[in-house]
Amino acid sequence: xxxxxGRLALVAGVANKRSIAWAIAQALGNAGARLAFTxxxxxxxxxxxxxxxxxxxxxxxxxVRSDEMLDTLFAEVEKAFGGLDILIHSIAYALREELxxxxxxxxxxxxxxxxxxxxxxxxxxxxxxxxxxxxxxxGSIITMTFLGGERVVPNYxxxxxxxxxxxxxxxxxxxxxxxxxxxxxxxxxxPVRTLSGRAIxxxxxxxxxxxxxxxxHRGIExxxxxxxxxxxxxxxxxxxxxxIVYVDSGYHIxxx
Length: 256
What we know:
The chain is 42% helix and 15% strand.
């Protein structure tokens, strides 16, 4: 029997076939979960094409900055699914100009935008997902972070601050929702070649450092993240919550 047979999952953040969210969706879908996808207007065509791989999937528009759209999204998920078991939050955004140069030059508007989209969106989605998960006896929420939330990564800038806030948010949500048997975890992945990753100045150097200095001396693939997410959504992770789980070839343990 497929490990997630009968489970209902909402995946937010798919943009194209290279997206981490898509790798996670594939892992969940291939394990038997029924999938719902969100999309932004600019990537609707790509998301619909990918989602067609899973004929019974649900595809819904969402701008996480709009409370009205979030309300509609979760109402539609409840109508179609009757509940929810899994929420994948793979959403982050900062203005390209904020990912170059000095962090001290971050604009107020750029700071607010990065924190709103990359962090508050998890709070907003978790609040709406919780009743749907409670109706199913619990659930699993997973978000995506990066080592730049713990240590300085040149040019990661405001996104590093956003990831630090996201990791704290993961812990607070885990505390709030644990009594409802809802687990909340974050995956801290090494650099993967996504559209958002390539927007960071010096991204190729990050990849080189992982291969050169990590204990396993190899890079990270999106499929690695998908498999970790699958585990965190499975019964085997039933007592794991509030954690930051790394998949970076062990790079995070190194001092130099």
